[in-house]
Amino acid sequence: MTKVPLLVFAVAFCVVSTVFILMGADAGAAHATLAAFGPDGSGILAAAASVAAMRAELTDLETRAKQMEGRITDRSSEAEVKRIQGEHKSIVGQIEALKPRILDAMAEESNRHAIFPHVEVGGRAGFENPEFRAAAMGEALFHRIAPKHQLSEPAREFAGLTIPDMARQCLEFAGHSTRGMAAAQLVTRGLHTTSDYPMVLSDAVIRLLRMPYETPDSGVRMVARQTTARDFKSKHSLQLSGGPGLEKVNEHGEFTRGTFNEAGESYKIDTFGKVFGITRQALVNDDLGAFDRVPRALGQAALAFEATFLANVVAANPAMSDTKTLFHADHGNLASAGAAPAVATLSTARTALRRQTGLQGELISVPPKYLLVPAELETVGEQVLATLAAAKVDDVNPFPGRLELIVEPRFTDPARWYVVADPGVIDGLEFAYLEGEEGPQVDTRAGFDVDGVEFKVRLDFGGGFVDWRGWYANPGE
Question: Helix 196-209 to helix 130-145 angle, to the nearest 10 degrees?
């Protein structure tokens, strides 16, 4: 063993052992890691020699290329110029082919002889996990757009980084050298060389898309119940009757048997979506506005689409499994004559819900909770639910504090209004997302049609009525 390799090996061992112990590991881990270097450190020297040889070759080729450029003068013949240009082109081709080989060799040796392998600290997943790292970086990018967002501890590692800086981080985590790369090169290589960088951008876009969903529900969504669908087949909702009433047990202790009646409604979810792109120029320019405007607008559009979908379901008065429409005289949930909301008409609606019966004719007494009106009846709704001091008992309004006003501006009929029960108490209007994919989902790829990155926003959504007993409609006047 020569003195130089022995010295290199000894120094490396001391450094690695010290770092491992500080990180909570033991010196045995250092032995295992340095074993790959060989007993005399020859692994380190062989890897370094391989990369050094290619660097030397690259330097020689670059020198020759410059010399070739200087050989063309005013006295050079046309044939000589063509010959020199041909040789110069060949050398340039060798240079371009050699550069990625050097980067790959450095990354390969770095991974093979990693001196600092991942050691989890405090049970927290490390940045070596691409998904963990992409989520942290995506959150940091989102924070630059929405500064009020409270950064998690992992995301603080990347706070303030520009979009090209994040491309640099992704490339370096993947073992690629970024020395001397400009912003445009970082973005281009980040999109096409690593899977991390598109994941980072996708994480930020998803957070922006879902911002509108963090606002409280309004309109018809407030009276609909959210659920999930396992697939795209029709989603059936079974309704069980209240069951037979209890009967007195005879003197022999014999219990009589009863049965349940079943009925069911169904609906299915479908896929809706849109593709948009963010250009390479916007990424290079660190244009946060490109990230903010389009995803946020699509998130708002997705939420508005869901609300419009549900409003249209209500307005369509769909047929139920008994072949009768949702609001029907036989269902006991449709006013016999249209009139505006008032104490008398609200009283009629409340009585109708209280008189609702189940599948076997048993009384279920549905308690009303909401007055749902179009925008044109908002003022009337506020008036009829206002608390006013009455001069006599007959003028007392019993509904303030008992019914909550909900305005749905997407209703196109300006006169029709509804009284609705709490969807948590009795089934009625229901909507569903595909299981595990609540709200808008995003797929990402490096752009082909767009020079940059493309995002496919997908929404698997559907809804329908699963029972009529919790809704009452008045066509208005």
Answer: 50
The set of residues, in sequence order, having a beta carbon less than 8 Å from that of 390 and lying 6+ positions away, is 396, 397
Q: Based on the domain organization, do 157 and 273 belong to the same domain?
A: no
Same domain flag for 182 and 228: no
Residue 122 domain-assigned (yes or no): no
**Rounded CA separation 299/440 (Å):** 7
Alpha helices in 23-41 (DSSP H): 27-35
Q: What is the CATH number of the domain that holds 346?
A: 3.90.1690
Closest residue by Cα to residue 237 from 392, 466, 408, 473: 466
pLDDT at 393: 43
Chain centroid to CA 265: how far? 30
DSSP string, 166-217: HHHHHHHHTT---TT--HHHHHHHHHHH-SHHHHHHHHHHHHHHTGGGGSPP
**125 Cβ contact partners less than 8 Å away, ≥ 6 residues apart:** 132
Residue pointed to by tokens 């960088």: 197
Range of the domain at 90: 3-71+81-112
- Which amino acid belongs to residue 154? P
- 254: Cβ contacts below 8 Å, ≥ 6 apart: none
Q: Are residues 274 and 138 in the same domain?
A: no
Smallest CA-to-CA distance from 227 within 419, 429, 425, 420 is with 429
Q: Are 240 and 266 found together in one domain?
A: yes
Whole-number pLDDT of residue 245: 58
> Six-digit token pair at 364?
């279920």
Q: Is 57 within a domain?
A: yes
Task: State whether 382 and 466 are in the same domain.
Answer: yes
Q: Token pair of 216, please?
A: 């409280």
What is the model's pLDDT at position 247? 66
Q: Which long-range contacts (CB under 8 A, 24 or more apart) does 56-63 make?
A: 57/98, 58/95, 58/98, 58/99, 58/102, 61/91, 61/94, 61/95, 61/98, 62/95
Stretches in the chain below the pLDDT threshold 70: 1-49, 51, 69-70, 74, 102-126, 194-195, 237-248, 250-263, 387-397, 447-450
Return the closest-CA partner of residue 453 out of 138, 140, 199, 130. 199
Do 418 and 449 belong together in one domain? yes
Residue 125 resides in a domain: no
Residues 226 and 369 grouped into a single domain: yes
Q: What is the pTM of this model?
A: 0.63
Q: Which residues pair with 445 in a beta bridge?
A: 454
Adjacent-strand bridge partners of 226: 431
